[in-house]
Structure to design on (234 residues):
Protein backbone atom coordinates (compact mmCIF):
# COMPACT_ATOMS: atom_id res chain seq x y z
CA UNK A 1 0.00 0.00 0.00
CA UNK A 2 1.35 3.40 -0.97
CA UNK A 3 1.46 5.78 2.02
CA UNK A 4 -0.73 8.77 1.16
CA UNK A 5 1.11 11.82 2.50
CA UNK A 6 -1.56 14.32 1.39
CA UNK A 7 -4.12 12.81 3.80
CA UNK A 8 -2.30 14.41 6.76
CA UNK A 9 -0.69 17.38 5.02
CA UNK A 10 -2.47 18.92 2.02
CA UNK A 11 0.30 21.53 1.68
CA UNK A 12 3.16 19.10 1.03
CA UNK A 13 4.41 20.15 -2.43
CA UNK A 14 7.63 18.11 -2.53
CA UNK A 15 8.56 14.76 -1.02
CA UNK A 16 11.12 11.99 -1.19
CA UNK A 17 10.21 8.38 -1.89
CA UNK A 18 11.52 5.03 -3.09
CA UNK A 19 10.42 3.33 -6.31
CA UNK A 20 8.63 0.06 -5.42
CA UNK A 21 7.64 -0.99 -8.92
CA UNK A 22 7.94 0.30 -12.46
CA UNK A 23 6.68 -0.90 -15.85
CA UNK A 24 5.51 0.47 -19.22
CA UNK A 25 4.78 4.12 -18.38
CA UNK A 26 3.98 3.98 -14.67
CA UNK A 27 5.77 4.08 -11.33
CA UNK A 28 4.65 2.93 -7.87
CA UNK A 29 6.30 4.61 -4.86
CA UNK A 30 6.39 3.64 -1.18
CA UNK A 31 4.85 7.04 -0.34
CA UNK A 32 3.35 9.87 -2.35
CA UNK A 33 1.94 13.36 -2.07
CA UNK A 34 0.38 13.15 -5.56
CA UNK A 35 -3.40 13.05 -5.31
CA UNK A 36 -4.82 10.19 -7.39
CA UNK A 37 -8.01 10.96 -9.28
CA UNK A 38 -11.13 10.22 -7.21
CA UNK A 39 -14.09 11.58 -5.26
CA UNK A 40 -14.78 14.25 -7.89
CA UNK A 41 -11.25 15.68 -7.61
CA UNK A 42 -8.90 15.32 -10.62
CA UNK A 43 -5.45 13.81 -10.28
CA UNK A 44 -2.38 15.90 -9.56
CA UNK A 45 0.34 16.36 -12.15
CA UNK A 46 3.96 17.39 -11.66
CA UNK A 47 7.48 16.01 -11.89
CA UNK A 48 9.72 13.22 -10.66
CA UNK A 49 13.45 13.88 -10.21
CA UNK A 50 16.32 11.45 -9.60
CA UNK A 51 20.02 11.88 -10.37
CA UNK A 52 20.24 14.08 -13.45
CA UNK A 53 16.77 13.05 -14.63
CA UNK A 54 13.51 14.89 -14.53
CA UNK A 55 10.32 13.37 -15.96
CA UNK A 56 6.80 14.65 -16.07
CA UNK A 57 4.01 13.04 -14.04
CA UNK A 58 1.00 13.34 -16.33
CA UNK A 59 -1.68 11.39 -14.45
CA UNK A 60 -2.07 9.64 -11.10
CA UNK A 61 -4.59 6.94 -10.18
CA UNK A 62 -5.32 4.48 -7.39
CA UNK A 63 -5.73 0.76 -7.96
CA UNK A 64 -5.91 -1.92 -5.23
CA UNK A 65 -4.36 0.37 -2.62
CA UNK A 66 -1.39 1.32 -4.81
CA UNK A 67 -0.93 4.70 -6.45
CA UNK A 68 0.12 4.57 -10.12
CA UNK A 69 2.07 7.60 -11.35
CA UNK A 70 1.94 7.80 -15.14
CA UNK A 71 5.29 9.22 -16.19
CA UNK A 72 6.20 10.72 -19.58
CA UNK A 73 9.77 10.07 -20.81
CA UNK A 74 12.56 8.43 -18.82
CA UNK A 75 11.53 6.09 -15.95
CA UNK A 76 13.44 5.60 -12.69
CA UNK A 77 14.67 2.09 -11.82
CA UNK A 78 13.14 -0.06 -9.10
CA UNK A 79 14.70 0.88 -5.75
CA UNK A 80 15.67 4.38 -6.92
CA UNK A 81 15.21 7.32 -4.56
CA UNK A 82 13.19 10.03 -6.23
CA UNK A 83 11.91 13.50 -5.42
CA UNK A 84 8.28 14.15 -6.29
CA UNK A 85 7.18 17.69 -7.10
CA UNK A 86 3.49 18.59 -7.32
CA UNK A 87 2.24 21.14 -9.87
CA UNK A 88 1.15 23.39 -7.03
CA UNK A 89 -0.80 25.92 -9.09
CA UNK A 90 -3.14 23.24 -10.34
CA UNK A 91 -3.40 21.40 -7.00
CA UNK A 92 -4.08 24.55 -4.98
CA UNK A 93 -6.97 25.40 -7.31
CA UNK A 94 -8.39 21.93 -6.72
CA UNK A 95 -8.06 22.48 -2.95
CA UNK A 96 -9.90 25.81 -3.11
CA UNK A 97 -12.70 24.33 -5.21
CA UNK A 98 -12.99 21.23 -3.03
CA UNK A 99 -13.40 23.28 0.16
CA UNK A 100 -15.86 25.57 -1.67
CA UNK A 101 -18.01 22.52 -2.47
CA UNK A 102 -17.98 21.43 1.19
CA UNK A 103 -19.10 24.93 2.20
CA UNK A 104 -21.95 24.79 -0.33
CA UNK A 105 -22.92 21.29 0.83
CA UNK A 106 -23.06 22.54 4.43
CA UNK A 107 -25.09 25.63 3.50
CA UNK A 108 -27.65 23.69 1.43
CA UNK A 109 -27.96 21.08 4.17
CA UNK A 110 -28.50 23.67 6.91
CA UNK A 111 -30.96 25.73 4.84
CA UNK A 112 -32.94 23.05 2.98
CA UNK A 113 -31.97 19.74 4.61
CA UNK A 114 -30.79 18.49 1.24
CA UNK A 115 -27.87 16.15 0.58
CA UNK A 116 -25.41 15.70 -2.28
CA UNK A 117 -25.84 13.29 -5.18
CA UNK A 118 -22.57 14.07 -6.99
CA UNK A 119 -19.82 16.59 -7.62
CA UNK A 120 -16.93 17.30 -9.98
CA UNK A 121 -14.01 19.69 -9.65
CA UNK A 122 -11.76 21.12 -12.36
CA UNK A 123 -9.08 23.80 -12.32
CA UNK A 124 -11.40 26.65 -13.28
CA UNK A 125 -14.88 25.55 -12.17
CA UNK A 126 -16.81 22.96 -10.18
CA UNK A 127 -20.30 21.54 -9.95
CA UNK A 128 -22.35 19.95 -7.21
CA UNK A 129 -25.71 18.17 -7.39
CA UNK A 130 -28.31 18.25 -4.61
CA UNK A 131 -31.49 16.34 -3.80
CA UNK A 132 -33.45 19.59 -4.15
CA UNK A 133 -36.88 19.70 -5.71
CA UNK A 134 -36.74 23.34 -6.69
CA UNK A 135 -33.92 25.82 -7.00
CA UNK A 136 -35.39 29.28 -7.48
CA UNK A 137 -33.35 32.39 -8.21
CA UNK A 138 -33.96 33.51 -4.61
CA UNK A 139 -32.66 30.21 -3.25
CA UNK A 140 -29.53 30.42 -5.40
CA UNK A 141 -28.86 33.96 -4.16
CA UNK A 142 -29.37 32.85 -0.56
CA UNK A 143 -27.02 29.85 -1.01
CA UNK A 144 -24.36 32.03 -2.65
CA UNK A 145 -24.46 34.73 0.03
CA UNK A 146 -24.48 32.23 2.92
CA UNK A 147 -21.51 30.38 1.36
CA UNK A 148 -19.56 33.61 0.99
CA UNK A 149 -20.36 34.49 4.58
CA UNK A 150 -18.70 31.23 5.68
CA UNK A 151 -15.68 32.08 3.47
CA UNK A 152 -15.38 35.52 5.06
CA UNK A 153 -15.72 34.11 8.58
CA UNK A 154 -12.25 32.63 8.06
CA UNK A 155 -13.06 29.29 9.66
CA UNK A 156 -10.29 26.75 10.14
CA UNK A 157 -10.55 23.61 8.04
CA UNK A 158 -9.26 20.70 10.14
CA UNK A 159 -8.30 17.17 9.20
CA UNK A 160 -9.33 14.62 11.83
CA UNK A 161 -8.92 10.88 12.05
CA UNK A 162 -11.56 9.07 14.09
CA UNK A 163 -12.49 5.47 14.71
CA UNK A 164 -15.51 3.86 13.09
CA UNK A 165 -17.03 3.34 16.58
CA UNK A 166 -16.64 7.04 17.37
CA UNK A 167 -18.49 7.96 14.20
CA UNK A 168 -21.27 5.40 14.63
CA UNK A 169 -21.88 6.62 18.22
CA UNK A 170 -21.92 10.30 17.13
CA UNK A 171 -24.25 10.28 14.12
CA UNK A 172 -24.68 14.07 14.30
CA UNK A 173 -20.99 14.40 13.40
CA UNK A 174 -21.57 13.43 9.85
CA UNK A 175 -24.51 13.34 7.44
CA UNK A 176 -24.17 9.76 6.37
CA UNK A 177 -26.32 6.69 6.90
CA UNK A 178 -24.54 4.13 9.16
CA UNK A 179 -24.72 1.51 6.39
CA UNK A 180 -22.78 3.86 4.09
CA UNK A 181 -19.84 4.32 6.48
CA UNK A 182 -16.89 2.51 4.88
CA UNK A 183 -15.78 -0.62 6.70
CA UNK A 184 -12.32 0.65 7.64
CA UNK A 185 -11.02 1.14 11.21
CA UNK A 186 -9.89 4.78 10.88
CA UNK A 187 -11.90 7.41 9.03
CA UNK A 188 -10.76 10.79 7.77
CA UNK A 189 -12.99 13.75 8.46
CA UNK A 190 -12.74 17.24 6.95
CA UNK A 191 -14.15 19.63 9.51
CA UNK A 192 -14.98 23.26 8.79
CA UNK A 193 -14.78 24.46 12.38
CA UNK A 194 -18.19 25.04 13.94
CA UNK A 195 -19.99 24.57 10.64
CA UNK A 196 -19.67 21.23 8.87
CA UNK A 197 -17.91 17.86 8.91
CA UNK A 198 -17.72 15.33 6.12
CA UNK A 199 -16.03 12.01 5.49
CA UNK A 200 -13.51 12.81 2.81
CA UNK A 201 -10.31 11.68 1.11
CA UNK A 202 -9.57 14.87 -0.83
CA UNK A 203 -7.26 17.84 -0.38
CA UNK A 204 -8.49 21.08 1.22
CA UNK A 205 -7.29 24.56 2.12
CA UNK A 206 -6.55 25.22 5.82
CA UNK A 207 -8.91 28.18 6.21
CA UNK A 208 -12.17 29.05 4.40
CA UNK A 209 -10.79 32.49 3.54
CA UNK A 210 -8.38 30.86 1.08
CA UNK A 211 -11.34 29.78 -1.07
CA UNK A 212 -11.91 33.31 -2.38
CA UNK A 213 -15.29 34.55 -3.58
CA UNK A 214 -17.79 31.86 -4.66
CA UNK A 215 -19.96 32.75 -7.66
CA UNK A 216 -22.79 30.57 -8.91
CA UNK A 217 -22.43 30.49 -12.70
CA UNK A 218 -25.59 28.59 -13.48
CA UNK A 219 -28.04 25.94 -12.34
CA UNK A 220 -29.08 22.84 -14.24
CA UNK A 221 -32.25 20.82 -13.70
CA UNK A 222 -31.08 17.20 -13.65
CA UNK A 223 -34.41 15.71 -12.52
CA UNK A 224 -37.27 16.12 -10.02
CA UNK A 225 -35.03 15.80 -6.94
CA UNK A 226 -31.70 16.56 -8.57
CA UNK A 227 -30.46 20.11 -9.10
CA UNK A 228 -26.98 21.15 -10.14
CA UNK A 229 -25.04 24.25 -9.14
CA UNK A 230 -22.05 25.30 -11.24
CA UNK A 231 -19.60 27.62 -9.55
CA UNK A 232 -16.44 29.56 -10.25
CA UNK A 233 -14.06 31.12 -7.73
CA UNK A 234 -13.11 34.75 -8.15
ZN1 LIG B 1 -15.10 16.27 -0.51
Amino acid sequence: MTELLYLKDCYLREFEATVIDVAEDWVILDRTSFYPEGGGQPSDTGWMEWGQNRSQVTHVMKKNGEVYHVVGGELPARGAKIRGIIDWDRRYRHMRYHTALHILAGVVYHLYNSTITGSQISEDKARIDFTLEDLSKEKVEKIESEANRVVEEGRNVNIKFISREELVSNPQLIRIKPELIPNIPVLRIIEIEGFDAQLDGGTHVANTREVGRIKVLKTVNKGKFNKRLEIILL
In short: Residues 39, 98, 102, 200, 202 surround zinc ion (CB under 6 Å). The mean pLDDT is 94. The first helix runs from residue 88 to 112. The longest strand covers residues 53-63.
